[in-house]
Predict the structure.
Amino acid sequence: MRTRACVRRWWWWCGWAAFVACAEDSCPPACACTRDSGTVSCGRDGDSAASGVPARVPAWTSTLILHGRNVTTLRRGAFTANGSALDAAATLSLSANMIRAVQSDAFAGFPHLRVLDLSHNRVERMSDGAFKGLWELRTLCLNESIVPEAASQLSAALAAGDLRSLHRLELAGNRLRSVPLAGLDAFRHLHQLVLVNNSIQSLGRENTSSLEQHRRARVYLAQNPFRCTCELEVFYWWLKNGSQCADASLLRCAEPEARRGVPVERLRAEDVDCLNENLEAVSYVFLGIVLALIGLVFLMVLYLNRGGIKRWVTNIREACRDQMEIYHYRYEQDSDPRLANVAV
C-alpha cells in the first residue's frame, strides 16, 4: 500500500511539474512567440483583457515587446508579480504604452537587461530608483517620452548610479532645455548621447568640460534652436576645436532673427565674442554718460546765469513789443483812409 501511495504521489508530482513546465512555455494571450529567436511580442488587438503586463511570460524569453497595452504605471516589481522568471531577457520594449509613471524597482525582474525602450510615452513622474538594478543596461531609449515638467526627475533617476554600463542614451524629441546629466563621471562607458529635436539653445561650460573629459562620447544635437549670441561662445569653440558632435554640420541658428538658419559652424568668431559685445555695450554706456554730463554742465551754466538770461529775455521781449507797436500803428494808418489824408 505504501508503495502504491508513493507511486501515485510521484506521478502526481511529475504531472504537476509537467503542467507547470508547459504553462511556463506557453505563449501568453494576444502575443506572438518565437522560441528560436527568444522573442515574445504582445499587442492589444482590441482585447481589454490583453492590457497590462502579460502573465506567465516564457522563461526562455530574451526579447519581450509590449506595444499598445496601456501600461500606464510601471509599479515596483511590475515584471515579477506574475511569477515569471526573466533572467534570460536582454531586450525590453515598452514603446507607445501611454506610460505616465515609473516607480522604483520597476525593472527588478530583468537582472541582465541590455536594451530598454520606453519611447513614445508620456512620463510625468519618475522615481529616483526607476532604473535601479539595471547594472548591465547598455542602451536606454526615451525618445518623445518625457514631459518637460519631469526633466529634473529624469536627471535624478539617471544620476542614481545604476547605469554604469550604459553605452547609448536616446533623449530625442522631449523639449529638453538642458542636458539632463549633472556630469558624465557616472557614465564612463557612454559612447552616444542623442539629444536631437529638443529645446536646447546651448551647452554650458560644465557640459562641454565634462564631454572633453570623455573623448569617446559622441553627441547628436540637430534640430535644436541654438541662440547664436555671446552666450554660445563656449559651445562654439568646443564645436570648432573638437569632433565629438557627430552632426555638427546640421546645427542651425534660431536666434537672433538676422542669423536664423545660419549653420553654427559658419559663424565668425566675432559673432560670439563676449568681449567685443561687452566693449560695444560699454562704449554705448560711456557715450550716454558723456552726453549726460554735457547736458548737466549746460543746465548748470544756465542756472548760474539765470539773472543775466532773464534780463536778456526781458530786453528782447520789450524790443519786440516796441517793434510790434510800430508795425501796428503803421497798419492802422494804412487801413484807415482818413488817417491817410491827415498824413498827406
Summary: The CA atoms of residues 119 and 142 lie 5 Å apart. The first helix runs from residue 2 to 25. DSSP finds seven helices and 14 strands in the chain.
